[in-house]
Amino acid sequence: MMIYCTNNVPKWNYISISGYHIREAGSSAVQELAFTLADGFYYVEMGKKARLDVDMFAPRLSFFFNSSINFFEEIAKMRAARRIWATALKEKYGAKTKRAMMLRFHTQTSGYTLTWQQPHINIVRTAFEGLAAV
């Protein structure tokens, strides 16, 4: 699929690597980030193994993270994710373009922090989680 999409639909983001479900299952922010980036690096290695140019396929990878209630931890997680991804793509996988080193991601606010007993407070929680992801 990576070979076909890289060669025939070069502007389509054909792989979305999700960490959201990992966090919802009870992991910490650090574990979510570690497992999700490990999955992403696996895709990069598979692309390189298929003899694809990392500068051609890496910009098409996207990530899906969870944003939970710990405001500063979430901000740090997103910043760390971008730095780790860019550094690894450049130093380990030989990426040359900024687009290849860019971490493209989507964030969804957490579901496990919400309670049915406090629907109005859930609005505040979700807004706070969303703000951390900006």
TrEMBL record:
Q: Which organism is it from?
A: mine drainage metagenome
Annotated ranges, domain Methylmalonyl-CoA mutase alpha/beta chain catalytic: 2-134
Report a single Gene Ontology molecular function. Answer: intramolecular transferase activity
Q: Which SUPFAM superfamilies does this one have?
A: Cobalamin (vitamin B12)-dependent enzymes (SSF51703)
Pfam families on file: MM_CoA_mutase
What is the protein name for this chain?
Methylmalonyl-CoA mutase, large subunit
Q: What InterPro entries does the record point to? A: Cbl-dep_enz_cat, MeMalonylCoA_mutase_a/b_cat
